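Q: Convert this sequence to structure tokens.
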Amino acid sequence: MLIQNKEIINSSPFTIDDVAKFRGISSASARVYCSRKIKSGDFVRLKNNLYILKTVWNELSWVEQLQLANRIQVPSYISLFTALANYELTTQVPAGRIESVAKTRTYSKEIQDIEFIFIKMDKRLYFGFTKKRGLFIAEPEKALADCIYLCSFGKYAFDFNALEWDKINKISLTVLLKKFPLKTQDWWKKHGIA
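A:
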């Protein structure tokens, strides 16, 4: 929470209304205050009306960064290469990039040195994720299926050789892929290396 004189906010992102409440000022004044704090480098703007202290941002763990991705685009879930790296199923580590699947739109947003990428997928494919450690994240095989789906349409590049194939449940992957378009299934039959 914001302490008026020391301007300390806990690790949770906050809104203009939060600032207005804790500083005892109007929403309009709080908006100006937040704008000044962004310019001075004290606040980081995550999206419209969602901020975090720069000092808190600098101390975020990997999981906390993933949690923020869920807050930046609602609804969304962590998937693709990011989820596979989170499960330690790839020998590569994404640097400065967090990928999510979203229902509404495809876009990316750079905040400080992190690129948050949201890829819209067909609403019928918006499944196979769970809430773990306070974040929505695809199950391992669903994250891989999402990669395969996007690759089959030429919208994603993924190094399948970097996967820890012995840790992938190939039966679950096969079952999941049956819920995807035939184009995706055919692509995987042709290009799959499992």
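Strands lie at 43-47, 50-53, 76-78, 97-102, 107-111, 114-120, 129-132, 135-138.
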